[in-house]
Amino acid sequence: MANFTAAFTKTMGHEGGYANNPLDTGGETYKGIARNFNPGWGGWHKVDQAKKQTGVVAQLDRLLSADKALQLEVQKFYKLNYWDVNRLDLIDSQVLGDKLFDIGVNMGVKRAALMLQQALNLTNVNGRAYRDIAEDGVIGPETLSLTDTHPRPALLLKVINALQAERYLNIMRNNPTQETFANSWFSRVAF
Prior knowledge:
single chain; mainly alpha; 3-stranded antiparallel β-sheet; 3 strands
């Protein structure tokens, strides 16, 4: 079974610490938690307190990283809102669990589930390996079963990566200001 701690550690390598890029639609972020999308997250008060102590991002990151309670709050937030929602602990493959968690964090849990379902349908050899499933963005028993018994898991992962890359390209085409995030986004895609 996929392990949350392993997936979390890998994704945090992409998310970094504190950021407040005016081009980021999420606004101010800490460890990938966007204030605009998660204004009620319990860790914001600690971030705000640390900002009062220093305006230097490197010092701010050190202060926040040293706060063990805050780091546990970050983990709890991700497990509840990104891991558990998509039932990733029921996926046998750690590699797929890592990938779906990371996509969920970066693009939303529904989009991660939808990409998995699309990839399953695109790799079923026109319905000869198994019938198409509903692409509803919810990882249920059928999606889980097909993921764990997929006849070509490496191909499934490649298609998910391609769908992820396609999404980034579409974002940049539709809003060229977002090209500033291309290097970071594409570091998440395995080719």
